[in-house]
Description:
The protein contains 15 helices and 14 strands. With 443 residues, the chain is α/β, with parallel strands linked by helices. It has a 9-stranded mixed sheet with strand order 1-2-4-3-5-10-7-9-8, sandwiched between helices. Strands 6-11-14 form a 3-stranded mixed sheet. Strands 12-13 form a two-stranded antiparallel sheet. A hairpin with a 2-residue loop joins β8 and β9. It is globular and about 60 Å long.
Amino acid sequence: MTDALRKVLDALPELGRYPTVDESQAELDELAARYPDLVTVRRIGTSRLGEPIRVASIGAGERDALVLGGPHPNEPVGGLTVRELGRLLCAEPWLRAGLRWQLVPCIDPDGARLNETWYGLPGDRDAYGRGFYRPAMDEQPEWTFPHLAEAGYFDRMLPETVALARLIDEVRPVLLASLHNAEYGGAFHYTTTTDPALAELLAAVPGWFGVPLQHSVYEVPGSVRLTPGVLRMPTVAELTEGAPPGDGSFGASSGEYASRHGAVTVITEVPMWADPRAADSLPTGRLMDEIVTGLLAELTGAEEAVSGVLDSARSAVRLDTPHQRALTDVLTAMRRISAGWRRMAGTAEGARPATVADESAFLALPHTLRLRAAGTLLRVLDAERASGNVRPAIRAAHARAEALFTEWRAAADRQPGTLIPLRAQAGIQLGSILATAAHLVRT
């Protein structure tokens, strides 16, 4: 199976851009027109702004696999993956593995449209940062499933989430593949199962495309590592531990919701830029506490700088935009991450020797988060100016935000790393999905 799958993936075409919402929708129709006896396209819901959300059903297996593109609109590689997966499943019947496949190319079309300015410019960090939009957590279809425990209580499902929940409850998938991509480092996976054989299989896939495996993943403090590059996906209860009762800012994930039907969820995070240090487990001669101290200084300084600019213009801001809510969320995330890593100080994890992979991960994280914050701040202020709000405070804040963004983008550009071809980004996700499906069918 592995050799045959690798042969199919080796034949993937070169890919030049991430698809827009309209392109993804058109591709579903083209696939159904080409394979009318195999592919059915239907609408499963409507976005908050009136966009149709559709799914392509392929094959006639007794069990279902659900593949979800665009759960975060700043992570568009899933649109490519869904397109190529649909073509492969139709052209290569053995890849369907006895399953009926449900492919959703974009679950958040409203958010995707706010990122499309850079979809055609992969690798252009300036275009990416200036066109960046990542919704606040409570506006993400991925993280707004119900969590009804009193600590972190959340029941504000979005229309997109309701549509996805209905589909999950209808098809009761054995596999849910939620397609994400990271920005920098190596590829890694989250999964809801602790199956060691599946973890080893997932860990092997990035190497098929010459992409390093991320040995040090600290995106979520306290994540349980199953094998290098593969982590157990945390539950919302674990993520909100210590939150005040009823104070949930986000809900459960799609994977946690699908687990009620016994689904195995796999999330494959493929970076846009690869850093070979991500797979280097050699010691640096420093302890983790030292590495974390540097991270905290960078994050705290960036959060204070962006917050300072925002505060200077707050009384002049007139619009309630998605970008403004997103900016509040990214600043909150920076504080939450800092608090999580402060808790490491003095623990066994903090006292262990740091590897090259650890150091590179902690050096890259501040670049990612502060560029997100500065780019989102610029979009907040750009919206004000476009509406005619050119008050002195808005103009002054925009100049300061532009200076921060320019400085931080230049620093990010100096980081070692190379753009991963889109063919490899999508190929890693395809390999992970198809290998997992075959593994689940066998077991």
